[in-house]
Predict the 3D structure of the following.
Amino acid sequence: MFNLTKFSLLNNRTTLVVYSILMLMGVSSYFNIGRLEYPEITIRNAQVITQYPGRSSVEVEQEVTNALEQAIRQMPEVDKVKSTSKPGVSILSVSIKDTYFDLEPIWQDMRNIVIETPLPSGSQPPRVNDSFGDVFPYLFALQGDGFSQAELLNTAEAIRDELLATPGVGKVELHGAQQERIYLEFSASELAAQGLSPLQLMQALNGQNAIASSGSVRSGVDRLNLVTLGEFESVEQLA
């Protein structure tokens, strides 16, 4: 029977040469192996979320979850489907078979299928979330003394458009942007003295803050569209 230990001790020079060759091959492989800073990872999972407000979990399962699950299982690319029905919401976790790598067409087919699936009235359109594999390796903070939130947001949106045009960039999201709101304070006693309610005041403001079509005028071979501008352009116009 061949004894490797005995052979190595009796042929120590041969053993050292073989060991040195293997060590050099390992070092060479370490420095020449392919490396990616952000390797692409294929995520074959997605969620189909459907809101069905005011319904119990049993009603959600019977009227929404079962219909969507049966439709999705007909896709040949689907491997597993797990469903969860909660009061007011249906969640389907879908896994794609390992033999598929180009997943975008599959997700689009799934979106088309769930949209075409008949669902009860009162349920919201199903939403397919396939963004599990998104990676955001860089975070940028934008600040500027003396600039308003609107000016910072406009600058951030311009930077986002430039980044999206960069090769290799797939998604850019903005976080922390404050939504513009106008808070209108009024005197309830003065409003009541005028015989108006807060609802009537809101309806009057909505009626003024509108853009309406006023028809068109023909000038020779050209047709000019007329638009009546009534929207507010500044906060002072609300006073």
